[in-house]
UniProtKB/TrEMBL annotation:
HAMAP family per record: Pep_deformylase
Keywords: Hydrolase, Iron, Metal-binding, Protein biosynthesis
Name the UniProt record assigns to this protein: Peptide deformylase
Required cofactor(s): Fe(2+)
Length: 176
């Protein structure tokens, strides 16, 4: 496996919508998924979308570490892939979530997100998956799905005054 270079904010690859993955079982896709998982874990991320590693493909990888699980409805999850995903809000409830991004290192901001989302797509083996996510998983899925549509989390923020460097927010407190 290979660690991939992560595009940072300002690179045009992050602002363009992706194309569906035509052959989910192609060896190149399997390799890309494995490399993306390795890259995500090495970088300490909870998700990584194909555009972030310079591929205009509709796929992302994610996981829910035990420390980020928010309970029974949001259990820890091993590293997984979602290919050609579709997300839809479940209900109207919105929550503010503190987000960071591997493409925007050292910064975090409060982003309004749907509390629950329904998701569907294919896993790394080409099997159909679907479910309803809440908690941390709902946040990660929405964040990564945005990447597939050329959207970075600051574009979703209602108030850029609620964004800051990790070190400063740790020192002075997060402003919910």
């Amino acid at each position: 496996m290979t660690l991939l270079k992560i595009a940072r904010m300002g690179h045009p690859v992050l602002l363009q919508p992706t194309q569906p993955v035509a052959d989910t079982q192609a060896p190149a896709i399997r390799t890309l998924v494995a490399d993306m998982i390795e890259t995500m874990l090495d970088a300490g991320g909870a998700g990584l979308a194909a555009p972030q590693v310079h591929h205009w493909l509709a796929l992302f990888v994610y996981h829910v570490p035990l420390a980020r699980s928010t309970g029974e409805d949001d259990p820890p999850r091993p590293p997984s892939a979602l290919i050609n995903p579709v997300l839809e809000p479940v209900g109207d409830e919105m929550v503010d979530r503190l987000e960071g991004c591997l493409s925007i290192p050292d910064l975090r901001g409060w982003v309004p997100r749907h509390a629950r989302v329904a998701y569907a797509g294919l896993d790394a083996h080409g099997h159909a998956v679907r479910g309803v996510a809440s908690g941390f998983l709902a946040n990660v899925l929405q964040h990564e799905y945005d990447h597939l549509n050329g959207i970075l989390y600051p574009m979703r923020m209602a108030n850029l005054g609620r964004m800051g460097f990790d070190s400063e927010m740790a020192r002075y407190g997060e402003r919910p």
